[in-house]
Structures are given as structure tokens and as C-alpha cells.
Specification:
mainly alpha; three-stranded antiparallel sheet; two-stranded antiparallel sheet; 5 strands
């Protein structure tokens, strides 16, 4: 195992950690840039459970879906356009959304994808929005670099 010299800042030794939070995103150590989506999904599930269990009295799945889309989806998609997610991480986000849909409509299996297509198209839309946001983020980044 390779040991690094301790880094000293203002007379205090900085400790090495496996993850660091920056602007709400949990960065992880490794040979290449990586993020940990566990906290993102935890925040999503926490807000989902809160809204889902307190809105059961409505008995209207479309209203619950709208509430979840408006208040919980931003937790799931926060900063995804600039993180460079892998295909596995993107599938994990889609799976998290599909789990929410299956709870709202009380369905399993292929019916989940069918309901996603019929109600809000979010299964395909999540991938599409991710790619559009990433493209616009890259374009703005290139414009800023060329300005300076």
C-alpha cells in the first residue's frame, strides 16, 4: 500500500477521507472523478416517503405523481448534468424513479415501464433531460473558456 506524506495546513495535519461533500454532491476518491449517489437517492426516498404517506388520503395517483415530480425529482436530478454519470449510475437513477412509480400505482414488473410511458414519460425523459442538460452545460463551459 502506498502511504502519502501528511499535508499540513496552518500547523494542523489534514486527514485523508474517502468522500467529500462539495455543493451538495458527494465526491469519492479514486483514479478518476467519481460521485456517490447514495446520499442523493436517500434524500429522494426521504422526501418521497414523507409525501407518499401523508398524501394517501387523496386516493388519486395522478395527484401524488405530480407532487412527487415537483418536490422529489429535483433531489434525484440535482447537478446530474455536470457530473458525467456512468451508464450504471444513470440506470440507478432511472430505477429509483421506477421504484417510486411502482409504489404510487401499486404495480410491478413491465407494468412500471408502461405506466412511466403513459403518465409522464420520465423513464425516457430522465435520460433525455440528462443529455440535454449536460450538452448545455458543456456549451456554456466552452463559451466561458473562449471568453477568457
Amino acid at each position: 500500500m502506498h502511504y502519502c506524506k501528511p499535508i499540513v495546513l496552518d500547523g494542523k495535519v489534514l486527514e485523508y477521507v474517502g468522500t467529500a461533500r462539495y455543493l451538495g454532491v458527494l465526491l469519492r476518491i479514486g483514479r478518476s472523478f467519481g460521485v456517490n449517489l447514495h446520499s442523493t437517492k436517500s434524500h429522494f426516498y426521504s422526501s418521497f416517503n414523507s409525501i407518499f404517506h401523508s398524501s394517501k388520503k387523496f386516493q388519486n395517483e395522478v395527484v401524488i405523481l405530480h407532487l412527487i415530480s415537483a418536490y422529489c425529482k429535483p433531489y434525484l436530478l440535482y447537478a446530474t448534468e455536470c457530473l458525467g454519470l456512468s451508464v450504471t449510475q444513470l440506470r440507478s437513477i432511472v430505477h429509483t424513479w421506477q421504484c417510486a412509480i411502482s409504489h404510487i400505482f401499486h404495480i410491478t414488473g413491465a407494468d412500471v415501464q408502461h405506466v412511466c410511458r403513459l403518465t409522464s414519460h420520465l423513464n425516457c425523459l430522465l435520460t433525455f433531460l440528462y443529455r440535454i442538460d449536460k450538452l448545455s452545460f458543456c456549451l456554456v463551459y466552452v463559451m466561458l473558456i473562449t471568453m477568457y
